[in-house]
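Moderator note: this is an archived Q&A kept for reference. The question asked for a predicted structure of one protein chain; the sequence and the answer are reproduced below.
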Amino acid sequence: MRYIPITQAEKEAMLRDIGVSSTEELFAANIPAEVRLKRPLNLPPALTEMELMAHLRELAAENANTAEYACFLGGGAYDHYVPAAVDAVLRRGEFLTAYTPYQPEISQGVLQAIYEYQSLMCELTGMDLSNASMYDGASALAEAAGMVVSQTGRSKLLVARSVHPHYRRVVATYMHGLGVELIEVPLEGVTLDLNRLEALMTDEVGGLLLQTPNFLGYLEQVRQIEALVHARNGLFVVAVDPISLGVLEAPGNYGADIVVAEGQGLGVPLSFGGPYLGIMATRERFARKMPGRIAGATVDTRGQRGFVLTLQAREQHIRREKATSNICTNQALIALAATVYLALVGKEGLREVANLSLQKAHYAAREIASLPGWRLAGNAPFFKEFAVLAPAPAAEVSRKLLEHKILGGVDVGAAYPELLEGDAGADGGRAAAALTFAVTEKRTRVEIDRLVAALREVK
């Protein structure tokens, strides 16, 4: 779509054709006088390009950014290092300006990039198939929930309380439209309550939506959970942190039926909240229930390798009632960033990124837990994120950290009040807040020690 300007004469001719003499007369005939603005818009005078750029720089300087602040925030968006080559490839015109391939056979470069992305996602997750990406982690999980309902024909679905609260809200919105009863499985400490899962997992339930590492950063007991879900012929959906798969078992190896993820950590900057990348991979038997599209490799009539859209199950390609989802596009450019990132770091590099994040997070957790009034919220294993109970309200902690040019941590007490209920430390004191801190490979020991020193000042 592009804007085509018209001349004044053309505008006047159009107005005459519809029987009015001016734009004002057109508005007056259709918009009540009491709601019409009777003064000029309150806008500043126009700026030159140079003035506008200076103004935008002033506005941008008001943001606290990760170039100047040490970031320990997490909760689904993480400050991982993005190699310069990722952006260099993304800015190539054939990728940056390309839209979704409506004529796929003449979009061989885009299709090959998507195919390589899918191949890497399958290798990373241990699954058979990956689609050509989703919007983000939350919508990917919601689409996976729809797949479970469609595949099993059951009207109930379990979701672990340890799943990201925003993800659960998106899933609830999707399931409401389908008339599916969404049942929350509570926590036991900082991970899923296995006894409650066993009781809730009945023959009427289609499956379970799980996140590991969960929203609080802790690893779920996936093998026991998988056995409980499959014992009732349910489907096991797992949301993962793709960086964690550098050191943790691939979900396909412990029985996951559908794997989803937020791919932001794979070469995508924080960007103040987006755009991000939704990853989805599954078993081959669920291919026709998968939303979106699948790019495939083939051989043409001349024996040359080519790429095609093997499966197009979105409503813009097939009849609406036959579509698996109403997803209208994909995140091909962001998926390309993940592809370039994984190709650059390779298996050993991903393992090193994951291991550095793991080791640094555990160092930070030990140091914070040693502070008077601070303690870990649970004893379960964690990856790069962990929850702590704080002696002061979350807002006060955040203000103190900002004074030291530190971003962190995420206030999770409101979403998980059970972390604070009945809590008492060894000295009998009550925690005032529950927060999570995330530590990536970018954080240095100096930054972690600065974080701990700032937290020591919190009273």
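Archived answer notes: DSSP finds 13 helices and 17 strands in the chain.
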